[in-house]
Amino acid sequence: VEKGDTDKAIAAVKDARLVAPDDVNLILTEANLQIKLGNKDEFAVLMSEAIALDPNNASLYFNLGVINAEQGDVEKAKEYYNKCIELDPTYADAYINLGSAILEDDKGLVEEMNKSLSDFKKYDEIKARQVELYKQVIPLYEKAYDLRPDDIDTVRTLMSLYENTGM
């Protein structure tokens, strides 16, 4: 890989996996090579294989959540983030990413609000749904803040959520 020959690197890892097919580290090495090459589907297959071998590894679920979110499958990403949190309740990034995945619904609400600027009643109804969405994710960001109080991005997100909910 360092010499720029990723094809040979993948071939070497595949050869090593023939010798040790249940070695999770080899699977992760191949998965990392695949993701660097932009092969997200192959990455997901390899990560699923790693999970089958090491089902209590929270990082594996987190990484699958990230890939699913990037591929637009937000619901599946949420499942993986929740599983990560179940396995490791101190995994701050899982709370942040779960909150972010839930907030994907906010984009549609903002679009609806922008289309309803002249219909105050409808605008207020949509705004109320937006506030409820924000209140749903606040506990996730608060937990992330408890775990990493120096993370300025989490602080900013919480400040914005508090402001928009009137808290």
What does it look like?
By secondary structure, the protein is mainly α. 79% of the residues lie in helices and 0% in strands. The protein is built from 9 helices and no strands. The chain has helices at residues 6-19, 24-36, 40-53, 58-70, 74-87, 92-102, 105-115, 120-147, 152-165. α4 (58-70) packs parallel to α6 (92-102), α5 (74-87) packs antiparallel against α6 and α7 (105-115) runs antiparallel to α8 (120-147). The longest helix has 28 residues, at 120-147. The protein is elongated and about 65 Å long.
Compile the SSE list and pairings.
Elements: H1 6-19, H2 24-36, H3 40-53, H4 58-70, H5 74-87, H6 92-102, H7 105-115, H8 120-147, H9 152-165
Helix pairs in contact: 1-2, 2-3, 3-4, 4-5, 4-6, 5-6, 6-8, 7-8, 8-9
Number of helices in the DSSP assignment: 9
Regions with pLDDT < 50 over 5+ consecutive residues? none
Alpha-carbon distance between the termini? 50 Å
The coarse silhouette is: elongated
Q: β content, as a range?
A: under 5%
Give the tally of β-strands.
0
Q: Mean pLDDT, as a whole number?
A: 92
- The multimeric state of the shown protein is single chain
Instruction: Determine Rg (CA atoms, Å).
Output: 20 Å
Write down the secondary-structure element order: HHHHHHHHH
**Major β-sheet annotation:** none
Task: Spell out the key features of this protein.
single chain, 167 residues, mainly alpha, 9 helices, 79% helix, elongated
In short:
The protein is mainly alpha-helical and 167 residues long. The protein has helices at residues 6-19, 24-36, 40-53, 58-70, 74-87, 92-102, 105-115, 120-147, 152-165.
